[in-house]
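Much of what follows relies on a compact textual record of a protein's fold. A complete example follows; check for yourself that the lines match position by position.
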Amino acid sequence: MKTSAKSHVGKVRTVNEDTVYLHTDIKPCYMMVADGMGGHAAGEVASRITCDSIRRYIDEHHLTELTKDDILRAIDFANAALRTEMEKDELLNGMGTTLTFAAIKGDDIIIAQVGDSRAYHFNGDVVRKVTDDHTYVQYLIDSGVIKGKAASEYPFKNIITRAIGMKDLKVDFFEFTWQDQDMLLLCSDGLTNYADDNVLKQVLSENSSLSHKTDKLVDIALDGGGKDNISVVIAQQVKEGDKTV
């Protein structure tokens, strides 16, 4: 497997509240994108604590493989850590973060999802959104209240209905397999607000390095306005020994 990642503050925000973390050199293999939210610098704190706490849980429990139960316990641990920090400092009260977490073992991938960051699977032909957005607008779409262009133009489309930091946390899981040369994309909504499936397919299909693809996706979001932080992680299944980026 080969990987590339990039996170950019964007053109409007002064603080990058996204956190990206990759653990791919030794087992277990996993990666995550967290998009924090909250007043002051709370969003930055929330995403960092969440990713650090998940990593710490996996390390302290000496896990070399990750099951759904392992991942859920690690996320619950991170959620508890975040809520503890909120209790310590009233300025952090109400902070939270999205989380898109991917555990990879050979051909098998487990995705854990909270919020509206996303995971995509590209098989060389089709870009498929793996995750479901936990947003109010997605709830309205699922309920049949709005559809089509109205969904993309809905004024409150960034209101999320699930986040790490909530008292009663629910995590969605998705499992699939990937083949040689397939790609996994994790990203915050700072990218997907400006890049639809066609744009993603165009970039991922290019005959270029993964680092060039991550750079280009970030540039597309910046050219579109860059109103939010932008985080992109791309992993590709490759033949043994091919680790070029």
